Amino acid sequence: MLKFLLRPSDDIDPEMYSPGKVKNILIVRQHNQLGDMLCSVPLFAAVRKKYPEAHITLVASPINYEILFSDINPYIDKVITYRKAPLKNLIDFYKELRDHNYQIGIVPSTVSLSRTSHLINFFSGAKVRVGVKSIDGKKNEMEYLLNVKSDFEWDKNKLHQSERNLDVGRQIGCFISEKEKNEVLIHLSEDEKKFANEYMESNFPDKNKLIFGFHPGAGKIPNRWDKEKFIELIKLLNTKFNCYFMITSGSIDGEISEYVKSGLNKSGITCAILDNTPIRKIGAVIRKLSLYITNDTGTLHVAGGVDANVISLFGPTHGYEWAPSGKNKFFIQSPTKDINDITVESVFNKADEFLKSEYFVKETEGTC
User: How far apart are CA 199 and CA 193, in angstroms?
Assistant: First the structure.
């Protein structure tokens, strides 16, 4: 019905989104997935760069925003969490949204074309509404609520999620350089760094040993490499490097993590488990590992955000789209869509190759 009540949007004069005219900006990223949120941060940086004096509000899920938005975050001024139940929460949400006079509203639809996100953006009252018209031929059914929009061919061009987010902002002239994009990281607090230092000293006292971390769980079952393969991989690494091992474990990963730990104990290999810990503190620990090997799940994106050394494993999802990038970050894509078609040997060889690399040797000089 809304579609028929609205007149087609006229072309927007670029002067309407010039920095001198914009005081308030809304970005709607209200889904639960942590990876989606982390891949949006370069967009936030680009918006802040063009509009350094604007007040920027983010609509986010109550689950996923705390990883990014502490008191030191330089891009976002305010976070409004989207809660649709009970009804009072929804009413309060829209009342708070309408308290701001938004000149720009942005919906970075790079994963799903959300009806809810577009309605939030529209009812915010933003005059310039930026988003996606279609993705690789798939029409956005809510594009009539946008007045700055484009057809994108992201899958065809095999673009990373961070680039897809940036593409949305580029429509209104929000750009950052490759160097600036690489500098967009999770900024850890002194308390988080202290936690990591104490954890490492307590669990891994020999500073001459390498420390490997693993995440054998994942929210989506097709993204889980077989737990027996993790056990076999760790045994190979132990034989080659005589190192320390650690598993990160989320609230849904306990059974898998304990299975891997128990399997290693039977072979006389000790493995610490880091669980029931705030995600930012987990990130601080991951940053200090020699190497982190993980499935495609939330902690992968945290590892990328703290610039850890990472090998990530991909089955049905695309590594070119989701894996963090950098000289110390690698992904292994299944030759099929089955993650278990990734061999233990291929992961071991990639780890061995990285630990022999000039980058790793230079990075660790003088640290042992």
Answer: 10
- Rounded CA-CA distance 143/254 in Å is 42
Residue 344 has pLDDT above 90, yes or no: yes
Instruction: Decide if 90 contacts 83 (C-beta within 8 A).
Output: yes
Q: Which fold has domain 2-182?
A: Rossmann fold (3.40.50)
Distances in Å between the alpha carbon of 89 and those of 94, 266, 329?
9, 51, 41
pTM attached to this predicted model: 0.89
User: Residue holding tokens 């639809």?
Assistant: 109
Equal CATH topology for 2-182 and 190-364: yes
Convert the pLDDT of each residue in 181-201 to its tens digit: 988 888 888 999 999 999 999
For residues 8 and 38, the answer to whether their CB atoms sit within 8 Å is: no
CATH topology of domain 190-364: Rossmann fold (3.40.50)
- Cα torsion for 285, 71, 56, 148, to the nearest 10°? 0
What's the rounded mean pLDDT across residues 241-261?
95
CA distance 75 to 146: 24
Q: What are 308-343's pLDDT values in tens digits?
A: 999 999 999 999 999 998 899 999 999 999 999 999
- Whether the Cβ atoms of residue 274 and residue 285 lie closer than 8 Å to each other: yes
